[in-house]
Amino acid sequence: MPLTRRTILASAAAVGTLPRFARAQTPTIRIGVLNDQSGTYRDDGGPTSVLCARQALVDFGISGKGLNVEVISADHQNKPDVGASIARQWIDQQGVDAIADVPTSSVGLAVNTVCREKNKVMLNSGTGTSDLTGPQCSPNTIHWTYDTYMLGRSTGGAIVKEGGDSWFFITADYAFGQALERDTTQVITKLGAKVLGSIRYPFPDTSDFSAMLVRAQASGAKVLGLANAGGDTLNCIKQAQEFGLMKSMKVAALLIQSTGVHSLGLATAQGLRWSESYYWDLNDRTRAFNERMKGKTPNGIYPNMTQSGNYGAVLHYLKAVADMGVAAAKADGRAVVARMKAMPTDDDCFGPGRIREDGRALHPVYLLEAKKSADSKSPWDVAKVLATTPMEEAFRPMDEGHCPLVKS
Known about the structure:
The chain folds into two domains: 28-146 and 283-362, Response regulator (Rossmann fold); 149-278 and 365-394, Rossmann fold, CATH 3.40.50.2300. It contains 15 helices and 14 strands. It has helices at residues 5-24, 46-60, 80-94, 105-118, 148-161, 175-190, 210-218, 230-242, 258-264, 266-269, 284-293, 305-324, 326-331, 333-342, 391-394; strands spanning 28-35, 68-75, 98-101, 121-124, 141-143, 166-172, 194-201, 223-227, 250-253, 273-276, 354-355, 361-362, 365-370, 383-389. Helix 6 (175-190) links the parallel strand 6 and strand 7. The model is unreliable at 1-24 (pLDDT under 50).
């Protein structure tokens, strides 16, 4: 085709539009939900955590605010090397800006290191160890939902005050279980209780707890402290009931959630007490969130605190991204976390709160008790609230955590 003045001008005009078109494209924020999709902690997080994170996008209204956001997920198999490898691949090859959930404390600590090295954001809901706001605290990490100090203070403290002054622990032998036994021991001994013994078992390769339960019963302790979670806790409780141990000892399930109590059934969970920072039937806002999740979760699950924690953390992250701009947020994970700390938190699951300098998100904590079957109005109506710990009192004092970010 012969070149004419018209074709030259048309070509120049077309070329001139390309930069403007490129500039008009909003960069995509990518969030990776990394958790156990197939093992011991699947029901505590798993696919429902991913769905709760995606619900945060819907409720924030990303399309109306001109944001492009994607949520992807992967199974870390409760292995630190697998979790760290996925995190690096996501960040280096898929442009992931924030990693959420990450149950299993050994995995969480590994991913915490990766996010700090890569200057990306860790939105922790599932990692329990309080070391994440202590010696291992990071300017790139928010610890949202619960931790081992909170669990020990709320559940352990309540049981000691009711006369449970001698304890025996069965503990998952990795970072989470060790921290949970340590922090609970610190709380209960300050209240005058004694620890008569403990057994640590290999995680995640243990399913038979019979010999451990026999030793616990023989110790003469009044309280059996379960420093484990997920399927391990459920197996311990079921086997304890089979052996009649629950007639002579009070079982302190230091980390169990509403999903686990539902799985046990109220007949088995009778009298069980535990602590959560979210429960679906707390108030109108939690009930409204639960209604929005109905029909979306596998097998009609009502989200627990870990799963809803992904909703709360991702929602607050999106507020910070929108406030500072997508390009700036993608460029500097530390700046995003700093902005999250500067903004008050508020969502339907956890209500108003704030994030401390050490990365600890503050919200109230609820001591729950399994309902009697006769008092339950529906299959998921499993708990009643016995006590509420205000957010400023529920977590370890910041000056006791030895976080390097905290100015003395």
